[in-house]
Amino acid sequence: MSGTTAIRASAQRLENAEELIDSVETFIFDCDGVIWKGDSLIDGVPQTLDMLREKGKRLVFVTNNSTKSRKQYGKKFETLGLSVSQEEIFASSFAAAAYLKSVDFPKDKKVYVIGEEGILKELELAGFQYLGGPADGEKKIELKPGFLMEHDESVGAVVVGFDRYLNYYKIQYGTLCIRENPGCLFIATNRDAVTHLTDAQEWAGGGSMVGAIRGSTQKEPLVAGKPSTFMMDYLANEFGILKSQICMVGDRLDTDILFGQNGGCKTLLVLSGVTSLQMLQSPNNLIQPDFYTDRISDMLSLKAASV
Amino acid sequence: MSGTTAIRASAQRLENAEELIDSVETFIFDCDGVIWKGDSLIDGVPQTLDMLREKGKRLVFVTNNSTKSRKQYGKKFETLGLSVSQEEIFASSFAAAAYLKSVDFPKDKKVYVIGEEGILKELELAGFQYLGGPADGEKKIELKPGFLMEHDESVGAVVVGFDRYLNYYKIQYGTLCIRENPGCLFIATNRDAVTHLTDAQEWAGGGSMVGAIRGSTQKEPLVAGKPSTFMMDYLANEFGILKSQICMVGDRLDTDILFGQNGGCKTLLVLSGVTSLQMLQSPNNLIQPDFYTDRISDMLSLKAASV
């Protein structure tokens, strides 16, 4: 579930979109900063997706956001007027459940969740028993001398994602399961430093919740979302596609582009999100996509001449 | 504020306490597992401390517990019938304030605290302005679209210690200060994985709170408590003692003994706390103290013959 990155030659500005489109059969899109920004669709997105579908390309949408399920995420696309099916959406909440399936996590074991509703919904759909999540958001610890927190010994995995209701109860519960239940897995939906709860600023992300559990267990998590290659492997298996036939499109170098590179895919950075041209070209940046362009709708104009 | 550890020869069982006592002028004691366990004094402690004082040894008590100030900690000694002055106590709450003093932290800047009362009291005594701490324990974030959390731009340091009231408000506030205020320091009182809130079990420690902020800032903290050498350097300067003239006594290999070794001191492991003889002698353990013994009162009997 991890990969290595070789230093690549500098990214090229995308000049011949037709060639890129013809060279792959699947486009994986990150959502925030690529498809939308907060609650606004980025210019030209519907037309671009239509064009790619017309050319027979498979479209997949991935997000490290674990607070929503695939279904809930589908509603966001719908609200923005985009026609995307649930099966095309891969949120890290789904990835965590898919990971448990991939390791044949026993159905008689339970999952303790530090995170929000999306994770619970996906675990439920996958047929796993869980506890924790929002239900533990108001729980407090009674610190009388001799007090002991009991924990469920049948918890075989702790899934940690972004949780705006993180508290010490959850930290201790998750820590006890990982430290004391033999073989208990520690799964992170993602380790993003920041997330976009609102458009107005960057907010501490899933990396905080994962960091809290890492700090008390001194264990490294298995990461289900980007930039771990688990989702890429899953997609390749599920759809029977070659990774070299995938183009990963994203706005973040250290998650999206690294995710694509770890998976052996082609990569396209768009400058419509958090990464500026200056950041891409900084000598401190070691992550170079194959191509970069301002926004995905550039694929329309950059192919118009040759159509 | 860090050090390296060479692999040492295996620890020797303490056989000649007289020789050890005569070879140093200061004993630094960890508290929990050495002086007391939870709320009970460990057998023979008062007599041992008296004997060492009679022999003219300086005694210092260090703890990574940051929830209490020196003064509050002094009361714990008093309750247990031990006569220890505030000046002999070095809690990591004090160490954080001492660190800020050592770097001439400007008095017109503020400190944001993720932690409990001990840190606030020590900052106050040191003359620093602070905000956060328990006062932010009940604060919630209102997640309306466009919502922005304002933060104080005069915060020049974030001090993070154990905080049983950790919440997302504090995580985001501390993260904003570190990410957005130029030069803002990130100081950890300690990174202990577990702590002893109650005797009945191990509880997630300061490492969780520090891990949460590390996860969202992707920065490493400056650690004021054990095993960083800051406190040792401070003690050596403050009292004008040579580190080779110090014996560090503790029950934990990866904090106490490493702390002593990082500081160039003699080290004595006691088996009255979390470390068993089996753990010490495990081939996986790379941290070897100079000596080990069951409890500090062994120093009484192991010197009796030669007195």
Automatic annotation (TrEMBL), chains A, B:
What does the Swiss-Prot or TrEMBL cofactor note state? Divalent metal ions. Mg(2+) is the most effective.
Q: Which GO terms describe its biological process?
A: photorespiration
- Keyword flag Transcription: no
Active site annotated at which positions? 30 (nucleophile), 32 (proton donor)
Provide the binding site for substrate.
Answer: 226
Write down the chemical reaction(s) this protein catalyses.
Answer: 2-phosphoglycolate + H2O = glycolate + phosphate
Q: Which Pfam families match?
A: Hydrolase_6, Hydrolase_like
The positions annotated for binding Mg(2+) are 30, 32, 251
Where is it mostly found?
plastid
Q: Which UniProt keywords are listed?
A: Acetylation, Chloroplast, Hydrolase, Magnesium, Metal-binding, Phosphoprotein, Photorespiration, Plastid, Transit peptide
* EC number(s) stated in the UniProt entry for this protein: 3.1.3.18
What compartments host this protein? Plastid, Chloroplast
Give the protein's function: Photorespiratory enzyme that dephosphorylates the 2-phosphoglycolate produced by the RuBisCO oxygenation reaction.
Protein family per UniProt: Belongs to the HAD-like hydrolase superfamily. CbbY/CbbZ/Gph/YieH family.
Please report the name of this protein according to its UniProt entry. Answer: Phosphoglycolate phosphatase
Which species is this UniProt entry from? Acorus gramineus (Dwarf sweet flag)
